[in-house]
Design brief:
Distance between the termini: 65 Å
Number of domains: 2
Helix content: 10-25%
Shape: elongated
Order of helices and strands: EEEEEEEHH
Strand content: 35-45%
Bound molecules: zinc ion
Length: about 170
Amino acid sequence: MRIQIAGMPPGPQIFDQESAASRYVGGNDIFPQDLWIRATLEREPDVLKVFLEVEAEASFSCDRCNDCFTRKHLCTGTIYYAFDDGEDFSTEPEQTLLPRNATEIDLAQDIRDLLILELPTKVLCDEECKGLCLNCGANLNREACSCQDKPSDPRWDALKKLRNKSTE
Ligand SMILES: [Zn+2]
Ligand SMILES: [Zn+2]
């Protein structure tokens, strides 16, 4: 996403883009549909403030039952670009340098980082997901297996007895 910044008027400027996810996260099947991107830029004397909102339909697989499902993935982030005069001044660690005479800015990397870094590391299809039966592998959200009814493994009986004792 390239945005002209030369002659940008003061105050927040909004830029919207709808784009194929492959433009930003190529070879990735997490995002099967288009991304909706809104960049709000605000130019100040020494800093260009970029507020990014990216919305995408993301396809996940549940950590508990392995089912695939899609969910809206909305991420936001603010990036600060400091204009570089070629002078020796220290930038804040979270600032990226931008040449003072830059006429446009390319936000592709920022968009990519935002999308990938904000992906949840653990996802459940539902908070109540029952998961898979550890014994037969049945998806307990869809079917009730009969493992529970079978006689339990005698090795666990000792433990159960212990547990019953401790709750008495
Ligand atoms: Zn699940
Ligand atoms: Zn089972």
